Amino acid sequence: MADLERQGITRSTEQYGAIDPKKELNDAEKKLPLFLGRWAVSPDQMFKFGFSIYVIWFIIHRVCDLFYIATVDARFPEGLGHLYPSEAQRLESVSYTRLVLLCGLMHRCLVFGAVVALVYFQLFARFDAGLRAFFAGIPVWWESSRLRACLNRSSDCCCAPIWKCLACICSPIGRCLWFIFQRPCTWCGKFKDHVFYGRLATDISNRYGFPLSMRELALGSVYLTLIGACFFAMSAPFIYWMQCIDLQFGFANSLSVSMANFRGNFIASLISMLIFGPPKKFVFLVVLQYRLGWVFMWAGLLVSIIYAQYNVGMIAGMMGMNMKFPATNFAVGRGFPLVETPVKYAPWISLNRLYFPDKFAQSLSPGEVKTFYTQDRSKGQLALQSHDDGHWTISGTSWFDPKASVYAESKGAAQAQLIDGLREQSWSLGGEHTRMGVRSGKELRDKLFGFASNRAIGIGQIYMVDGSHKDARANAFVTGAGNHSIIGLYDTLFLGKRGKDQEEDEDAEEDNVDELVESGGVLQHVSEVVQGVDVEKQEQDGRAPRNSASTEAMNDDEIVAILAHELAHSALKHMEMGMTAQVATSFVTFATLGWMTQSPLAAAALSLSAPVLHVGACAYDHLVGPPLEGFMKLFTDGLTRHNEYEADAYAATISEKYATGLETALAKLSVNSNQDPDPPWFFEALHADHPTFANRWAHIEATKKKVYAGGKKAVKP
Fold first, then answer.
1. In this structure, is residue 334 part of a structural domain?
2. Are 631 and 541 in contact (CB under 8 A)?
3. Where would I find the H helices in 606-692?
4. Residue numbers of the chain with a pLDDT score lower than 50
5. Which of 43, 490, 576, 661 is within CB 3.0–4.6 Å of 474 for a Cys-Cys bond?
6. Which stretch of DSSP H or E encloses residue 349?
7. Where are the alpha helices (DSSP H) in 430-549?
8. CA-wise closest residue to 617 among 220, 50, 235
9. Residue 474 shares a structural domain with residue 325
């Protein structure tokens, strides 16, 4: 080891670790480089400046959060209050917004406290020194441990006779193999010595700055993994709490998402992080240890972004898009309560799903299709089937429910056109608000492709994305640069009124208002949420889990207006603008990361006697990176909001019908997701990458007045 240190291949462990802040460092400070090659900055000044920025950034955000929590009312702008179905819906939005803000506030406060402790007590350096001492003590402990002595005795008693027998048998074979492979093995040994220990290794080290040994990189990977696992465990209660909130308000699908699943996933994720984290961090440090390693990382990100955006069709499957948007009619279940099944792994299922013709019925006319199937990832595949006597049934398929249990059936007889007759059927389950809607996939596809073709916007494919099996709030997106963009339509756009629990009725709305008003404040409501939403407990008690919260489905004009907005991003080259912004901001972040890991000035500010690769990377992740990335996010979010306004105006200028459809669609999305339609301007600036509903509505209205002045179109799109 000493010889390697003299050659510069490894560093002495004495170079690492914390330094005494009271010790005079005048000579060392004189040797420190200038900051960015221009300014003489002492480590103490740099520490105070960086830490002050972190604290100020945190205080600004938390003060804004507290003010918003205290003043949120979730009201639409004046004259639009009718967009809420009821006052209970507005109060529910207020409660949801406060809980989400409170959860995020407490999470960030805990993380802030942990980072302050790391900095104040010099734990970045102390943990590194402690980890080194721990691994250095393992060989000493092993030599004197009783476990080693016991293993040696067991080996002598049990394994020695076996090894002797094997040696007698294998010795002649080994001599033959050694005679055959002696010369190749000698060549391999010489090559290994020349590459790893000879002149070549020394030249690479001196020329390209390969300073760290494998042992040092392995220790760094363990260091980063353990600290990352600690912060992950610290965040787990708040992720759990947020999942509880989504279940309580009906946004998470309680049939697929439960607290028991969350706990299992958390433990599995933590174990996976501890097992697979060190190899990943090892590779990360291998590249980052070079002086220009951050440049290679940034270049790799740049190449991957460009490739992904211009070949998005090839990676659509990895993005969850496995089903092309149907070119036939499909049925939509609305207002059904959850039903109980005889299947153990899926005791409750939802009938409020999309039903598609099977692939063998694609060639039939719409009136001839008699069987539709669900094709999502929700529990239990269902079949919607027309029978000879003229009625329809919803039943489980044979592979899911061997008994093919019938869960609901229509009360009336079908008309001549089966699919048209399905629209008017009443059902044996769920009451008068239960129905089976029908949507024309071909009509929607023709509208979308026609819209894109008339404006020279290239669309590679349109996909139906299954979002309802987890969450009820997703809507639509477009991705991909150039002329091969793909569109994703979430099935939640088509699902209608999300039925409430069976015991709720029309009169329950007033009770719900009173309950929310008299809930005794946010903290009491928090405790009620955290303690009472475990789906497994409900199932054990024999009660049905909560159905999804109530939303409104989008009509065809609203869906086309949403997609006109999404396609406007492609027409106006917003994808390319976003790529450029991402490349620029990532260059700054990677450059800062590289500087933090290599700079003696940064190391001294962290109470280190010399740069330590993994300590610098960890300090960037938790101390320097958050305010830096947050500051750049102010500009990128501002650009995104500007692009959203442009896309809204583009869609609104196509026709007044689309402008109105976009407004009503945005209103439905706001109500459906319990989103505050008019948060304060400072909250939008600090947190939102999309404009608020109130601002978008006002912008679309201004566009309508400008384009359709006097009832006629005054400006061409």
1. yes
2. no
3. 613-619, 625-652, 656-672, 681-687
4. 1-26, 28, 194-210, 416, 498-540, 715-717
5. 490
6. strand 348-349
7. 441-454, 508-517, 522-531, 535-540
8. 220
9. yes
